């Protein structure tokens, strides 16, 4: 195997902590001062979790799922100098339509933030007569313009690739039902214009291993590497006492991301710490962002913990990708082009 | 109300039977010799039902759901001189990809047939790593070329409008789950090219009335009239002994079909006859085609009965549409543009 490289920008101020003790043997290790965002982070918001961040200007910016004290989730903007400590706007992001008129989702959760060329895109789950994907763009984090809802209900866990592939935008998503969805595979769809979507392909199936046997869903925006697109995703196990959400990873073909080249059969991180096992929804680790520094190969994963906190974990691209490749198990569903 | 007109072609040889007795008071009445297609219509096919027909050359042609004796459904081509009596090909329609290579769905059911300009389109439900919509085109009923699957799973009951609206193709569909789907509204989606789809809008909700309180789904291709698009659809009631499928009707705005102008709160036809109450799935009347003769205003509805037979019912456009308008009940979900 040739040297593994991240294909992307440098993030010299990437948040980072070397592993200590037993963590030194893990491909993905926790930040020791997790969670980085605790309960009641701003007035009227009980919990911030399942959130996504990017470098911006001389620091970082992010879109955060904030569950208000009435239980309804909205998306809040946050800023940080060091990507560990965050300040949040007290009001949810104001989305407008293309004419500039307010156009707020009735609820909005699990946002992802992706930069393509000079534009930032936010995608989230919202009510579209049923749970489905909302999409908006901004260039300045002051005005946020909603675009067409890319898909029919029911869908969750959408995330754009950070660049066009073969001339089109690509979006991962996880078709679902209207409830707590006891099934779910990851698909990818193409769009020439972010209005019309098609050429849908199946990417990967639930069910390879028990930890992800109930459903899976795209997590962080894929990271481009010399081996393919590194995707952190969540896998769910159904137990007699509810769902358990773990973090897994796979590597998708660079030109045809519906083809899974490698898939790690073991979870990389599963609820073990108090902030993952205890909370509004116990036993959830849910990745929504992964920052990567091309020069050092350092990766920082932001994940929601127990639907109550934001936490951080770290990896080195080369070691992690070696780990995935060496342990990889893929099925025909994973490796085929995904069209029936 | 001005005179109601069908906007479309003449079908002088439309199948027709005047109502007799009590049927004279009904807006939609049954053909007295139903079902027109009985059990075991061709070798190895146990039941033909939920099928769709159009005029073709000097007679009629159709795509028929045939459940084989192994239980798996496929689509069969049928031809008829009078639209009552049908002859079927013994093998399912051979679908190919754009290069002409065989590309068969693993299963295919509930096909609809729609002509737009000089091309015939077939859409059906099939396996796409979950139930979703398949789409194919033909000009000669000899070669059938599959197009991109328009939507992600899970979806059923897709039907194209018979002409472009505002320059785009429009397709109704009913997002669902992976099973027997105990919910479901009708949506409409646009496409400039039948490859990429978007501008999804909610059309109408289940739940107005008990007979359609569980789910609804588009049925026949909409018929253009001076009052709007006349849509025959199915509505489902959940009982302690299973689902009951009835036939309803609504009228959609001609330029913005996501807006329901009128909706009949009562079913037009519900399982009452032996061929609707008895069969592989009892208590199903399921419309998949409606032929209309512009000059006379005569309408013939083809509907599947009990997942076992094909049956016919008739209406006069003017009387039916008056009935719908006079009884109409619409909710905000129905009349709004359908974007959230």
Automatic annotation (TrEMBL), chains A, B:
Annotated keywords: Glycosyltransferase, Transferase
Report the leader peptide range: none
Q: Name one Pfam family in it.
A: Glyco_hydro_130
Among its keywords, does the record have Transferase?
Answer: yes
What InterPro entries does this protein map onto? Glyco_hydro_beta-prop_sf, Mannoside_phosphorylase
Task: State the protein's name.
Answer: Beta-1,4-mannooligosaccharide phosphorylase
What family classification does the UniProt entry report for this protein?
Belongs to the glycosyl hydrolase 130 family.
Coiled-coil spans in chain: none
What EC number(s) does its UniProt record assign? 2.4.1.319
Keyword Cell inner membrane (UniProt): no
Q: Which domain of life is it from?
A: Bacteria
């Amino acid at each position: 195997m040739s040297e593994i490289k991240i294909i992307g920008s440098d993030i010299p101020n990437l948040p980072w902590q070397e592993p200590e003790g037993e963590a030194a043997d893990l491909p993905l290790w926790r930040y020791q001062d997790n969670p980085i965002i605790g309960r009641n982070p701003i007035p009227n918001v009980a919990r911030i979790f399942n959130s996504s961040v990017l470098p911006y200007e001389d620091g970082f910016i992010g879109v955060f799922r904030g569950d208000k004290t009435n239980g309804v989730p909205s998306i809040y903007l946050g800023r940080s100098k060091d990507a560990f400590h965050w300040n949040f706007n007290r009001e949810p992001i104001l989305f407008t339509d293309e004419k500039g008129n307010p156009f707020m989702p009735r609820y909005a959760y699990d946002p992802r933030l992706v930069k393509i060329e000079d534009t930032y895109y936010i995608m989230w789950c919202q009510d579209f007569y049923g749970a489905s994907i909302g999409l908006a763009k901004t260039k300045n984090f002051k005005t946020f313009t909603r675009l067409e809802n890319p898909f029919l209900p029911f869908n969750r866990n959408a995330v754009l690739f950070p660049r066009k592939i073969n001339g089109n935008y690509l979006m991962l998503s996880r078709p679902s039902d209207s409830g707590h969805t006891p099934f779910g595979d990851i698909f990818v769809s193409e769009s020439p214009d972010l209005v019309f979507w098609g050429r849908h392909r199946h990417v990967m199936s639930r069910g390879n291993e028990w930890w992800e046997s109930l459903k899976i869903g795209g997590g962080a925006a894929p990271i481009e590497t010399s081996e393919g697109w590194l995707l952190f995703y969540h896998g769910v196990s159904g137990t007699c006492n509810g769902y358990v959400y773990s973090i897994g990873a796979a590597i998708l073909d660079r030109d045809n991301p519906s083809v899974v080249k490698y898939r790690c059969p073991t979870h990389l991180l599963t609820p073990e710490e108090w902030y993952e096992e205890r909370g509004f929804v116990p036993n959830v680790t849910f990745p929504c962002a992964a920052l990567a520094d091309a020069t050092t190969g350092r990766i920082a994963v932001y994940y929601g913990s127990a639907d109550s906190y934001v936490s951080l974990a770290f990896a080195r691209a080369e070691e992690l990708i070696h780990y995935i490749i060496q342990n990889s198990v893929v099925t025909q569903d994973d490796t085929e082009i995904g069209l029936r």
